[in-house]
């Protein structure tokens, strides 16, 4: 009875020490990719909203929100400065002769992807652990020692700081980089399909007579680049989410290949495209706003009157 009670209560088991309503547990994307018992995107959204209200879509977001400004500024800065270094190395030091080559864009994007993983892996891990800490309860109770069902009564982690401390204590510093291999396989090609389409779409949309792309062109090119990048990154995003969600109660996967093998054997090829709609749809406005903010910030800092590409 205790186990059944805890299982039924799991979607609501994220109480915090703060007064007021408890924040709900998980986002649709993470639950679709790493959770069980959910259908398509619309079904998942309805389930989360019915059980957890609108706050359920923002569970585990405090830590990412606190770090996103630093994260994005570093990634965009690494991309821009790597491009600038490569241009100078190839003798294209003047703005007029600093033509963008595909090889330069590719290398700069790959460097940005590697740096993003170093910064973003712990942030993603904390977010997913906070979102998924109650979801695996039903499966976990089957293999845990007697008395472990009490875990279902309260969250494993009380917040981001407690989550970090628990992971470091139980898994060591290496535990903060769980799923880093899958994240590298997602982000390195993902950033190549993020920055390169943005640059070329910008150049394609902008008339030759203009000295730089307009804000509208930046917004459109950035949104399309984001949709392309997130859409194509979905299969490895599923693997990364599952590896990072793994370990709240028990460890199911030994690594990237084992996660891919188990997921395919149990759920078929379609499992690697879970959340592709959410990823693609959210990728457009998110990336459009990000690129536009970046370009307009550069314009304001430099005192330019035209938007310039990174």
TrEMBL record:
Transport: is it a keyword of this entry? yes
Locate the region Disordered: 1-24
Q: How does it sit in the membrane?
A: Multi-pass membrane protein
In this chain the Solcar repeats are located at 7-85, 100-204, 213-300
Q: By its UniProt entry, which Gene3D superfamilies does this protein fall under?
A: Mitochondrial carrier domain (1.50.40.10)
Task: Please indicate which superkingdom the organism of origin belongs to.
Answer: Eukaryota
Q: Which InterPro entries match?
A: MCP_dom_sf, MCP_transmembrane, Mitochondrial_Carrier
Q: Where in the cell is it found?
A: Mitochondrion inner membrane
Recorded GO molecular functions are: transmembrane transporter activity
Extract one GO cellular component term from the record: mitochondrial inner membrane
Q: Which UniProt keywords apply?
A: Membrane, Mitochondrion, Mitochondrion inner membrane, Repeat, Transmembrane, Transmembrane helix, Transport
Give TM regions.
61-81
- One Pfam family of this chain: Mito_carr
Q: Where is the composition biased (Basic and acidic residues)?
A: 1-10
Question: Quick check: keyword Transmembrane in the entry?
Answer: yes
Which PANTHER family does the UniProt entry name for this protein? Answer: MITOCHONDRIAL BASIC AMINO ACIDS TRANSPORTER-RELATED, SOLUTE CARRIER FAMILY 25 MEMBER 48
Q: Which family does it belong to?
A: Belongs to the mitochondrial carrier (TC 2.A.29) family.
Spell out the protein name for this chain: Solute carrier family 25 member 48
């Amino acid at each position: 009875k205790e186990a059944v009670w805890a299982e039924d209560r799991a979607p609501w088991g994220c109480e915090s020490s703060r007064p007021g309503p408890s924040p709900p547990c998980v986002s649709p994307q993470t639950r679709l990719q790493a959770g069980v018992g959910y259908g398509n995107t619309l079904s998942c959204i309805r389930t989360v909203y019915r059980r957890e209200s609108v706050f359920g879509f923002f569970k585990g977001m405090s830590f990412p929100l606190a770090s996103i400004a630093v994260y994005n500024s570093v990634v965009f800065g690494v991309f821009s400065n790597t491009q600038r270094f490569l241009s100078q190395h190839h003798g294209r030091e003047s703005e007029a002769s600093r033509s963008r080559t595909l090889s330069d864009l590719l290398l700069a994007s790959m460097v940005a992807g590697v740096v993003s993983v170093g910064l973003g892996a712990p942030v993603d891990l904390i977010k997913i652990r906070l979102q998924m800490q109650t979801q695996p309860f039903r499966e976990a109770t089957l293999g845990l020692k007697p008395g472990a069902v009490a875990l279902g009564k309260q969250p494993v982690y009380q917040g981001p700081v407690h989550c970090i401390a628990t992971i470091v204590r139980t898994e060591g510093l290496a535990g903060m980089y769980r799923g880093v291999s899958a994240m590298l396989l997602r982000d390195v090609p993902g950033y190549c399909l993020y920055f390169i389409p943005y640059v070329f779409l910008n150049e394609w949309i902008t008339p030759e007579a203009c000295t730089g792309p307009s804000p509208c062109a930046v917004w459109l090119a950035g949104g399309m680049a984001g949709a392309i990048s997130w859409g194509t990154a979905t299969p490895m995003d599923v693997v990364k989410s599952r590896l990072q969600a793994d370990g709240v109660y028990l460890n199911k996967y030994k690594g990237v290949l084992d996660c891919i093998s188990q997921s395919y054997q149990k759920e078929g090829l379609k499992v690697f495209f879970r959340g592709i709609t959410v990823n693609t749809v959210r990728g457009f406005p998110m990336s459009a706003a990000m690129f536009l903010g970046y370009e307009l910030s550069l314009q304001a800092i430099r005192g330019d009157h035209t938007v310039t590409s990174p």
